Amino acid sequence: MSEMKLSRVLVLSGGLSHERDVSIRSGRRVAEALRSQGVEVSEVDSDSSLLPTLSALEPGSVIFPTLHGAAGEDGAIRDIFEMLELPYVGSTADACRRSFDKPVAKGIVESVGIRVPASRVLPHSTFRELGAQYLLPLIEKSVGLPLMVKPAKGGSALGASVVRSAAELPEAMISAFSYGSDVVIEPFIAGREIAVSVIEESDGTLTALPIVEIVADSGFYSYDARYTAGLTEFFVPANLDSILSARAADVAKKVHMGLGLRDLSRSDLIIDNNGEVWFLEVNVAPGMTETSLLPQSVAATGRDIGALYKELAERALLRKYSTSQ
Ligand SMILES: Nc1ncnc2c1ncn2[C@@H]1O[C@H](COP(=O)(O)OP(=O)(O)OP(=O)(O)O)[C@@H](O)[C@H]1O
Ligand SMILES: [Mg+2]
């Protein structure tokens, strides 16, 4: 059965998350790259016509999800693929669930020996019950300034803010709560922000791709800094000495393994002024637009990104038609 040939890749993007637009751009790029390799591609949105479309897929079809944010990255859509027994590129539903939830992922990553900023996680209901006038000063005192506030489950830095003075804290909390019911509060780690993408090769080994250093004008890689031309500079490969590069690559691979991820991932890290590497979060469906970090890293290797996506799709098919998935 392992002779099954790749007949079509269904690139799934859009959906109803806050990152719908970015996802559509990611999907378009992945589709173009696959077509350049002679692969038949259909681009589909995640809406009420999706289940009938998936149910009618011919054998040899593989799904390539490029859905960002909730549903796309929290495991839900991959549970659907698994229920339909359809092959797909990327991590399993279970692995997505533990990765998308930032506090859960940090706990697991810390247990494999990686530094993570200590976080407090507060649901909106705690503010209502205990009163913001008492909680806010406690947060400021116990976490210290500057601090970072972000939704426990989110992406593209939506609802994330750096708080440098106590006066900025209430607005930061309101902004984070507008993207989810739980908010993470953690110390702001000063240093160099990097992204390390990891690709699983066909023999099962992990490759850490060239590191991207992100230098945002504001010192924080916000939503605007991501999607407004000229606000951020990227350096690929990052100008790091070999010891720091190796350390960061090792952290990203440990994150990938520790969370049980599959095929590809992108870890967002900070190297502090003492050369220590801190884990911020991991992306199971990293951005794939022309300016996204993983495609920049692939380009720096000289590897054809379409060929890489095709390889991942073929491997997903092989998983399905070999003994275990
Ligand atoms: N503890 C921290 N210290 C310093 N900067 C931070 C910290 N946490 C987050 N940031 C900044 O906020 C940005 C967004 O945070 P993070 O990557 O955790 O969330 P995200 O919204 O899920 O991002 P993505 O779109 O990459 O999935 C980071 O790129 C970084 O610039
Ligand atoms: Mg991030």
From TrEMBL:
Gene3D superfamilies: 3.40.50.20, ATP-grasp fold, A domain (3.30.1490.20), ATP-grasp fold, B domain (3.30.470.20). Belongs to the D-alanine--D-alanine ligase family. GO terms for biological process: cell wall organization; peptidoglycan biosynthetic process. It holds the Pfam family Dala_Dala_lig_N. The keyword Cell division does not apply. Residues 106-314 form the ATP-grasp domain. NCBIfam families: D_ala_D_alaTIGR, PRK01372.1. PROSITE patterns: ATP_GRASP. This is Unannotated protein. GO terms for molecular function: ATP binding; D-alanine-D-alanine ligase activity; metal ion binding. Keywords: Cell wall biogenesis/degradation, Ligase.
